[in-house]
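Section: protein folds

Sequence with per-residue tokens
===
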Amino acid sequence: MNFIKRKTAKPVSLTALVCLAILLLLVFPFSSGVSSNDGSRFVSTGTREGRLAVFDDVWQTIEERYYDPKFGGVDWRGPSSSFRQAAAEAKGSHELYDVLRRMIAPLNDPHTRVYSPEEKFDWWRPRFVTVGLVIREIEGAPTVVQVDPQSEPARAGIRPGDVIESVDGVSAWELIQKQLKNQSLSTASRSARFRAVAGVLEGQDGTIVRVGWRNKDGKTRSGNFTRHWNQRELGFQLSRNHKFLVLEIEGFTDTLVSELLRALKNKLPKAEGVVLDLRRNGGGNAEAMSETADLFLGRGADLGGFTDRAGTTFQLITRSAALFPFSLNPKPNLPLVVLVSERTSSAAEILAAALQAKGRARIIGTPTCGCVLAIRSRYTLPDEGVLDVSEFDYRTASGIRLERLGVQPDFVVLPKRSDLYTNRDRALDVALEMLRASSVTQISRR
């Protein structure tokens, strides 16, 4: 997620607001606080008036702030009265927010979302309801790719590589198709299909879901699991594979990138090649990302620009924030391979696209999310819920719009179920082999 921070939700003018956003982006540390839309008092969604106040706030904010005044051709205004009536008749907060999500869904924009008061969280410490499983589409099937070792599914014997067959007695693919609403499985965007598969086990905290799965031996099992809240911290991992450095980054924040640069101070100069793993990176602060880009592109590289609905644009340039007092780019031509997946989004896609366009790295994996819009800040709703709105579009330095297009790898490496069972990372293996080949070539030229 790309964040462009501002301090007030009521600018004197849109142009002034953009200037303020740029100033905050370049100078001040990012904070994930929310902005109040109108300073109104708290309302209860237990009343009709309260539900309408929340609905009107969401609809009006998107109407006034969305980066595209034409809403991508979606009829935003037409259905509003029927959604407003449904919001008025909703039975409490859960039904209200379900109405709001159905209203927003046709925008097909993963950045524009609403969170009820109990769902809201700090983006840098993701909070979500889970049963302890991470689901992705592997070889055309909703497949478990990660299991919390302390979870009920782990104790029941579910392992990475197992296929989710049913949820509460309903075919998993039927539920996935239902989440896609009016889109078909074959025509849905990558990001929509990804979210639908990933959310196949979604539900309210404390509820029980019956899951049917198929294991490595083809045997079908089932079990009842309780959904619960879980929270994690975004971070990075550094490891060495002989003379090559493997760097995994899960997000971009000022604090995380500052810690990363300190950790790299003594390690990067000794490396003969780098694998930059962005496969689980959902983005973050675009300026913090630009500091990371400086490691491989140098200071002053053009990373493209953000444009608001008024047409005002500002450019993203490497090392303009200067989070670290000196450059850590001792080898400007250090061999680099970048790993990406459908989970790679926002600022991470901008980084991958820039490295690819400038011929600085080879990209390996699967096409990225194509989710490259930007949020100015989060809006507090009258009931203390939160609204995120895409207020900026993005284009690369060469003018390419990445939204819904994403970054296409130079070498597509598809994960396989067999890899999950054997704990093999096929994409990483290919990346390291490329670095070894590059190292041999450089030696032969000396």
